[in-house]
Amino acid sequence: MTDPLLRIEDLHVEIAGRGRTVHALDGIDLDLAPGESLGIVGESGCGKTMTALSVLGLLPPGGTITGGRIRFDGTDLAAAPEPVLRGVRGNTVGMVFQDPLTSLNPTLTIGAQVAEPLLLHRKVSRAEAWAKAAETLRLVGMPRPAERMKNYPHQLSGGMRQRVAIAMALAPEPRLLIADEPTTALDVTTQHQILELIDELRARLGMALILVTHDLGVIARRVDRVAVMYGGRIAERAPVGPLFATPRHRYTQALFAALPERAPDAARPLATIPGLPPSLATRPTGCRFAPRCGFATDVCRAAEPELTDGRAGAAPAATAHAFACFHPTGPAAGADPAAELRPPVPAATPVRTEEPLLRLADVSKTYALHDGPFARRKPGRSGRAAQVSAVAGISLTVRRGETFGIVGESGSGKSTLARLAVGLEAPTGGTIRFAGRDIGRLTRRELRAHRREVQLMFQDSYAAMDPRMRVGAVLREPLVIQGTGGAADQRRRIAGLLDEVGLPRGAVDRYPHEFSGGQRQRLGLARALALAPSLVVADEPVSALDVSVQAQILNLLRELQREKGLTYLFISHDLAVVRYVADTVGVMYLGKLVETGPAELVLARPLHPYTRALLDTANAPDPDAGPAGAPLHGEAPSAAAPPSGCRFRTRCPAATGLCATTEPPVAEPYTPGHQVACHFPATAGRVSSG
Q1: What is the spatial order of strands in the sheet that 454-457 belongs to?
Q2: For position 191, what pLDDT does the model report?
Q3: How many beta carbons lie within 10 A of that of residue 441, not counting itself?
Q4: What distance in Å separates the CA atoms of residue 538 and residue 536, rounded to the nearest whole number?
Q5: pTM, entire model
């Protein structure tokens, strides 16, 4: 049997600060063989990232390894001095961080940053390091690598920056690559490209991989084994196939049950995990999941379960299916152990009508392209200021009481469409009507009243709140601006909002940074509801949340829609989430709406090749699932110079000369209401007449 490349034994990590000590890791045991891939999953705060950072000695201020060993290739990194760790970091162990923009140096060119680890760890000349850096960028699929070497990080897209981060980690050809949430905020296409790239390079270079993520779909077909963490400990450890087929720990079971893909139907709320992960400032007594587990008994609260494979005797092997649970789920094949976790179907259903609430007619939005914040407008080929076509001739109707989902890659124009819908941006062309009124013709006073009816829920709720204001002031602000009620009425309204979103009324005295990500998203929703709007535009409201917190927010959105008759314009790159929440779906590509229709039709029988590619690229939480067709490759063209004819033609496998010369009209080729802008729509959308 091959000796492990990495062996973590009984690892304990503590972080001291602000008069308390956090027990971040409390007895972690993991093995990783040469060339093997291991996924580490769990909610935020469970210890995933801390485990990865411990390997390289990159603990936060106050962090200390207080026990255990980290043996890498025969060296105990837990006890190694700093010079030894510096020789390992970026050399034999590479790391890709979650946010490439913050992990790259904004003052250095891309070439200098990729060449840096070679100059530090290899006896090469600057010219040799530069050549190797260019070759590595080509290896990771960077378009025009020689040109990109001279760019700075801010000049690249999110997907390109992630490629640079991977190139930096791979340039010295490490034996182990640690990827910490490398695709969390990326759209499905870029996410697929990055994961395929890591898989390909791992196979080519024979690297071992640790993939840290909270996305169960990402690890399903990307790793050999999985470790599920909770409260600083390993809750379950197994090969990926058995874990997905028969999860044994009740926590793992609950994570799977919260997935939108596992919902029996869209009418039933998603299963959620009650409560919050444990505070690690003190070591809990008993099983750490017991306070949130519906199957906990007295023994769970009194004793801590050991990691076992269910048989009495010695500790389970690293490759065994082991779990730390006194009441594990049954291993019966074909059973649905999560069925009892799902709430009953609500008695009330959303009230949807055919009455249009929001209607966009041939709406366009262009921006002048500048060379810098203090420069004059950059001229185009015609000598006029060049323009970016962010939204180009979009027409859609959102009915009162429905959820209209918008999907597409980053840069497709989704967020611009959101700002247009709420009136934060004025369209360059076309009309936007809300409740029958053309918002472009509203007076200043009428526009102020209109903004009571339409509210925006932002992707990053923390960035959308003033960190110097307490929550009470944050929620009161829109009421004060709109002159709604007196001080006493506003306090009652704020208390009611906190009740509606499931937060304690005492939250008014706390600051935004004192809340978890899911709680801040609830605060963002509460602020959006403060003025009792008719339409809420939710821009990626759950993209960065754990699956359990995501389920809570989605259930809350659906519940408030039933109670208040809300209408949602729901923007997301997660197709599973959109499939669960949306009644109607619109697919955007490079400023164009290429397909719209009922969600069950668009996502089950897509007509446009771009929609088909998005579906094929999505990561299903099933190790046995494979893509139904060819996934989408390549970078989207620039919106400053969109292709002629069909904008998708440069990436479409079925494009012809007609696509290059003629823009496809919007049509309903098979089913009324299912529209597509394509010269050659797929016949999969055809509905049999009998």
Answers
A1: 454-457, 535-539, 567-571, 403-407, 584-589, 592-598, 675-677, 666-667
A2: 82
A3: 10
A4: 6
A5: 0.87
Residue 458 corresponds to which tokens in the numbers above?
Answer: 């932002």
Apex 20 CA angle, 514 and 23, nearest 5: 95
Per-residue confidence (pLDDT) for residue 628, from 0 to 100 = 44
The whole-angstrom separation of Cα 173 and Cα 690 is 59
Q: Which long-range contacts (CB under 8 A, 24 or more apart) does 560-565 make?
A: 560/500, 560/525, 560/529, 561/350, 561/401, 561/403, 562/346, 562/348, 562/349, 562/350, 563/348, 564/529, 564/532, 565/350, 565/351, 565/400, 565/401, 565/534
For residues 327 and 342, what is the distance between their CA atoms, to the nearest angstrom?
19
Residue 688: predicted pLDDT: 41
Give the amino acid at 334.
G
- Rounded alpha-carbon distances, angstroms, from residue 126 to 112, 129, 147, 225: 10, 5, 18, 40
Taking the C-alpha atoms of residue 643 and residue 3, their distance in angstroms, rounded to an integer, is: 54
d(CA 451, CA 40): 44
Q: What is the pLDDT of residue 350?
A: 62
Distances from the Cα of 465 to the Cαs of 459, 504, 523, in angstroms? 12, 19, 9
Beta partners for 589? Answer: 592
CA 232 centroid distance within chain: 23
User: Which pLDDT belongs to residue 390?
Assistant: 92
Beta carbons of 576 and 549 less than 8 angstroms apart: no
Instruction: Please report where in the chains the tokens 């990055």 appear, as a residue.
Output: 194
Closest by CA to 435, choosing from 519, 317, 355, 547, is 355
The angle subtended at Cα 53 by Cα 51 and Cα 54, nearest 5°, is 65
DSSP strand pairing (176-180 vs 93-96) = parallel
Structure tokens that stand for 208 in this block: 């071992």
Helix, strand, coil proportions of the chain in percent (round to 5)? 35, 20, 45
Residues facing 72 on adjacent strands: 6, 75
Write down the residue that tokens 């009644």 correspond to. Answer: 583
Helix axis angle for 158-170 and 110-121, nearest 10°, is 10
- In 3D space, the residue among 233, 188, 307, 211 whose CA is nearest the CA of residue 631 turns out to be 188
Q: How far, rounded to the nearest angstrom, does the alpha carbon of residue 177 sit from its chain's CA centroid?
A: 21
Collapsing DSSP to helix, strand or coil, 384 comes out as: coil
Task: Report the amino acid identity of residue 448.
Answer: R
**Stretches in the chain below the pLDDT threshold 50:** 1, 332-335, 371-377, 628-629, 687-690
Cα–Cα distances (Å) from 382 to 375, 378, 387, in that order, read 19, 11, 11
Contact 497, 530 (CB under 8 A): yes
User: What letters, b where the CB count within 10 A reaches 16 and e where it falls short, cover 57-86?
Assistant: bebeeebebeebebbbeeeebbebeeeebe
